[in-house]
Amino acid sequence: MGGRIRVTAFVGFVGVAACAAVSAQPPAAPTVNMPKAGAPLTLRAGRQQLNVALVADGLAGPWDIVFIPGTTNLLVSESPGRLRMIQGRELLPDPVWTPPSPAGNDILHGVVVHPDFATNKLVYVTYLKGDDKLQTLGISRGRLEGTKLVDVKEIFVADAWENARPAYTGRMEFGPDKTLYVSVGDRDRLCCGQQDDNSIRIRAQSLDNDVGKILRLKDDGTVPADNPFVGRAGAKPEIFTYGHRNSYGLRFHPVTGELWQMEIGPQGGDEVNILKPGANYGWPLVSLGRNYSGTLVSDQAFHRDGMEDPVIFWTPQISPAAMAFYTGDKFPQWQNSLIIGALSGQHVERMPFNDKGQPLRREEFLSELGVRFRDVEIGPDGYIYFATEVRYGSGEPDGAVIRLEPAGDPQPAPARNRSNCRTIE
Fold it and tell me: Measured at the alpha carbon of residue 80, what is the angle toward residues 222 and 388, in degrees to the nearest 5?
């Protein structure tokens, strides 16, 4: 791995947005405009012309997608509780697996494959565990045999119990050392009223539970001996970092090997962080957003010593849920750019970086589709794949997986702006 890319000037990134006078949350497209089978749409991302092709539709709330190694087939988690498979461009009718969850429209989230999938065939899933009174996040793993997940065993249950179905997240990512990183939400059922009450979300600041944390586990669900809080009295040993709201992105940087994390803020304050073992990322005491009542989150809301600042943030919010670094060969000028998909923002952003690791600009595209972008994966073919939905939690089959392909060479770069503001293309 190369050396650490240091990203310190997140305020400078805000300056880029302000100079260009572009909102982080553009108006939603008036209608849904998705590609049809065999009929891709041709759109633009800055200077790059794109073909947007349909892979499969008819999905209900696709939350996470992952390629099955050695193939171009996809596993897709549907949030109402079905793990599905796409073979070629065909969505198979029968589920691969269903979770042991209470009924609902938001119960199955993450799906990843083991780094040694070629030999062990292991697939990992996160889901809502519990009953109608108390719920938390559970993790199971099983072996993929053909089109079915078999010998499924629950390997971990988060200590994040609450009478709250939302805000349990469940994004997963395997690290280079084959440990599994998992996000747990702030479980806050009191978040969104006109009266401020942080009595649930403040648990993100305590090490005696898994609320608002990133966890680090062995591949069998046990705790690595080198986790930062192993041996500390009163601390959960599975905790890797704390002080998070609802984390929907976990990716390792392809050059530095650092773990980048992305979370949705309250009203504003969506952010991307570079995770350090044992570090505190501030929530709910520090946020660049506001409570839903309109107040600041605390009396020292924007920064506190001993708490990490984000490297990128959005105000107003875009609700970022999909994140990946581009590492394919089909868009060579996008190499190592950060690709982010937004829910409420209903668009995709590409962020290239300079040689100091600082974001240069935001390139917004795909807002013409009128959908929410829930996940992104870089395919083994070098194309970019998104899971999309029209409405959150509807349970209706309005979701799809789409693929971005280049349609011609990029146009030449425009003349450089000599002012201190960079153009957002």
Answer: 100
